[in-house]
TrEMBL record:
The gene is deoD. Gene3D superfamilies: Nucleoside phosphorylase domain. InterPro entries: DeoD-type, Nucleoside_phosphorylase_CS, Nucleoside_phosphorylase_d, Nucleoside_phosphorylase_sf. The record marks R219 as: Important for catalytic activity. This is Purine nucleoside phosphorylase DeoD-type. It catalyses: a purine 2'-deoxy-D-ribonucleoside + phosphate = a purine nucleobase + 2-deoxy-alpha-D-ribose 1-phosphate; a purine D-ribonucleoside + phosphate = a purine nucleobase + alpha-D-ribose 1-phosphate; uridine + phosphate = alpha-D-ribose 1-phosphate + uracil. It comes from Variimorphobacter saccharofermentans. The lineage of its organism: Bacteria, Bacillati, Bacillota, Clostridia, Lachnospirales.
């Protein structure tokens, strides 16, 4: 396998399942904290990627960047060029629904979006990006065994962090959107098109309407639950 313009890995360097946080330094943290026999397979653009073992299972972890164009590139290459079967996004999100609280773990069963990412498929209608049910079920069951609360439902993958429409999140809240992030819809679409599997697990780090937010230290400690759920189902 010739490395891609964005990934310096060779054929066989990457496991069948990849955990994908947005931040490459979080990928490094996961590799150093949880994996054994770790090898770094990518440093291109500092989008760090690592492969190791977790409880005897071979697992990779790699940053995906911010936004759908970024995760769209990395997940496409993993699915199509590196024979990856499963990508589990683990990231932060802003709560939208009234009953979503800081530190809640939200699993994106579906990913609504304001993005035009699906236009490339030239479909005769509106595509609904959804998670792989097998991965979703395993994540919920694993969380239950660990006594970790999860909320499963529809999330929003937004192209805009700073939205000129100040009413946008209120409109999405009316449709029972749980939380907003910026990557899941593109990941789910790439997985569908490739015939592969994807799941998005999120930790609520702030709330759009209450203004509450976690400190950097709190994020580090809280995100461990999400990381461990993903590792267990990898």
């Amino acid at each position: 396998m010739i490395p891609t313009p964005h990934n310096g890995a060779k054929s066989g360097d990457i496991a069948k399942t990849v955990l994908m946080p947005g931040d490459p330094l979080r990928a490094k943290f996961i590799a150093e904290t949880y994996l054994e026999d770790v090898v770094c397979f990518n440093t291109v653009r500092n989008m760090l990627g690592f492969t190791g073992t977790y409880k005897g299972k071979r697992v990779s972890v790699m940053g995906g960047g911010m936004g759908m164009p970024s995760i769209g590139i990395y997940s496409y290459e993993l699915y199509h060029f590196y024979d990856v079967d499963n990508i589990i996004r683990i990231g932060s999100a802003g709560g939208i629904a009234d009953d979503i609280k800081l530190r809640d773990i939200v699993i994106g069963m579906g990913a609504s979006t304001n993005s035009n990412f699906a236009a490339q498929y030239q479909l005769p209608g509106t595509f609904a990006p959804i998670a792989d049910f097998g991965l979703l079920r395993k994540a919920v069951e694993t969380a239950e065994k660990k006594n970790i609360k999860t909320v499963v439902g529809n999330i929003l993958s937004s192209d805009t962090f700073y939205d000129d429409n100040s009413n946008a999140n209120s409109l999405w809240r009316k449709m029972n959107i749980l939380a907003v992030e910026m990557e899941a819809a593109a990941l789910y679409m790439n997985a569908a098109r490739a015939g592969k599997k994807a799941l998005c697990i999120l930790t609520i780090s702030d709330h759009v309407f209450t203004g509450e937010s976690l400190s950097a230290e709190d994020r580090q400690l809280t995100f461990r639950d999400m990381m461990e759920i993903a590792l267990e189902i990898a």
